[in-house]
Amino acid sequence: MTQRTVEAGGRGLPGPEELRNNGVVKNVGEARETPTGAPQEELATGERSTRNRVARSILDHGPSTVAELAGRLGLTQAAVRRHLDALVADDVVEAREQRVYGTRTRGRPAKVFALTDCGRDAFDQSYDKLAVDALKWIAEREGGSEAVAAFARARIAAQASAYRKAIEAVSPDERTEALAKALSADGYAATARSAPLPQKGEQLCQHHCPVAHVAEQFPQLCEAETEIFAELLGTHVQRLATIAHGDGVCTTFIPKISHTTHNAPASTAGRNPA
To answer: Computed over its alpha carbons, how large is the radius of gyration of the chain?
Structure first.
């Protein structure tokens, strides 16, 4: 079986690590103009950096006109428009009519550019801390680690209805790929591929984990996810690696599924103990 890649769904997925740690918007597009003699990679990096500054200025100052952005950033209006066109194409910003307070003057209102929900989510926010604080409160007030585990199971069970439909719509040989596609739609950037020999089965790889920073402190999230994979696929599964533990990819081994197997044995949650 050859490797099958499932792209992350939509533009709203978080981008590279730079997004989370330093408040920079995802890399949007490549350099559109290439002055003679300049290295392409260097130019693309410069384009992304300036584009990030444009988006950051909108975040800091609110909806802004081209003239306002040009003045704040020391750019020409033509350059600002070019970067805004790219940001609009990537659903990071959107154009709106400027709100007018008081008596409206003659003529059309100026156009302003504001961050979309997707663009706002690309900046570092405190959702991870909020989630960790909430789970700590649950653990302290509602029954310790077992209460957190119950929450984790309930959370993944609520997500699993869409995964179950995707899996039930395909043949047993296609279940892992169907699960990967369903996970990608939820932002996990998942792939399905043949496991390296001598293993007989497949590997489900999640190249992104939206809750990785929370799962570092609460492994019950990973354990509940592994358990639901076993239930959905109707077979024992083994978690080999997780992003939350510092691995580059969350990797789950799924043995070759027997077409006659319907009840899933207990999964092996967590990492390979070797």
So the answer is: 23
Q: Which domains does the chain possess? A: 4-13+126-255 (3.30.1380), 24-121 (1.10.10.10)
| Residue pair 113/55 in contact by the 8 Å Cβ criterion | no
Length of the chain: 274
**What is the C-alpha separation between 149 and 97, in angstroms, rounded?**
48
Quickly count: other Cβ atoms within 10 Å of residue 28's Cβ: 23
Count of H helices and E strands in the chain?
10, 7
Burial status of residue 228 (CB atoms within 10 A of its CB: 0-12, 13-18, 19 or more): buried
Mean pLDDT, each 10-residue run in order, the chain (274 residues)? 42 36 39 43 68 90 91 95 94 81 57 87 77 94 93 94 95 95 92 88 92 93 97 95 90 79 48 41
CA distances from 158 to 154, 161, 164, 225, 228 (A): 6, 6, 11, 11, 11
Q: What is the pLDDT of residue 127?
A: 80
- 105 burial (CB, 10 Å; 0-12 / 13-18 / 19+) is exposed
pLDDT at 143: 86
Under 8 Å CB-to-CB from 187, ≥6 apart: which residues? 8, 9, 12, 13, 14, 208, 210
Helix (H) or strand (E) holding 32: none
Write down the pLDDT at residue 110. 75
CA 242 to chain centre: 15
In angstroms, the CA 6 to CA 248 distance is 17
